[in-house]
Amino acid sequence: MDDGAASRTRNVDTGAGGVLVIGMGRFGSRLALRVEALGRDVLAVEKDPELIRRWSGRLPLVEADATDPDALEQLGAQDFPVSVVGVGTALEASVLITSNLVDLGTPHVWAKAISTEHARILQRIGAHHVVLPEADAAERVAHLVSGKLLDYIEFEDGFTIVKMRPPKETIGFTVGKLELRRKYGVTVIGVKSPGVEFEYAGEHTRISPEDLLIVSGDTALLDRFASRP
Asked: Residues 187-198: pLDDT tens digits?
């Protein structure tokens, strides 16, 4: 790593929540740009000369081989609270980089995987969060196109939050009267009526035909609830 790269590294405020993004392919570059747009300091790491030329001047960028633990330590990877391994197609590189970050004691290591087997390996070597972009996107879209769901966020262990239109059986009733948790195992978190600010749902919140519901629960139970006419 050259001296110029090192000086650019020191310009990133890691103490204020800087994010290290390794791999400036399609996934890594988009993520880095979005994180920066959200006001977080970003340092990108790439070894491909073509990608370095493409992104130089657009983001703080270091030319380094992140599979080398000494290179990561030199650029201060251990000082970043969050690191993202955007390398996916090169399985060996992905595993080595993730392992290096874990060994350095990075508090939160996010890693991109291209298959469930790849994801399993990354989890076993210590990655705190594993992302399967194509699989996650396909899962989300499948739920959105197959029912009443307008938005869908799945967390770990099958817990999901959705935005949906109310089933007919809920219209005109209060949340307390419906007893949806007992009947379907789901919880109405909030209600958004047209032209009215979002309202956290309480026992006396009444559901109207035009409302949008924010509902949480187990993924399978939410699918069942959303399939109601």
From this structure: 999 999 999 899
Q: How far apart are CA 127 and CA 101, in angstroms?
A: 9
Residue 158 scores a pLDDT above 50: yes
DSSP for the chain, written as a single string:
--HHHHHHHHTS-GGGT-EEEE--SHHHHHHHHHHHHTT--EEEEE--HHHHHHHBTTB-EEE--TTSHHHHHHTTGGG-SEEEE---S-HHHHHHHHHHHHHTT-SEEEEE-SSHHHHHHHHHTT-SEEE-HHHHHHHHHHHHHSSSEEEEEE-GGGEEEEEEPPPGGGTTSBHHHHTHHHHHSEEEEEEE-TTS--EE--TTPBP-TT-EEEEEEEHHHHHHHHT--
The CATH number of 137-226 is 3.30.70.1450
User: Model pTM?
Assistant: 0.68
CA 94 distance to own-chain centroid: 18
Give residue limits of the domains in the chain.
3-131, 137-226
**Residue 220 burial class via C-beta count within 10 angstroms: exposed 0-12, middle 13-18, buried 19 and up:** exposed
Task: Identify the CATH class of 3-131.
Answer: alpha beta
Task: Return left, alpha or beta for 39; rule: phi > 0 is left, psi -120 to 50 is alpha, else beta.
Answer: left
81 — phi, psi (to 5°)? -70, -25
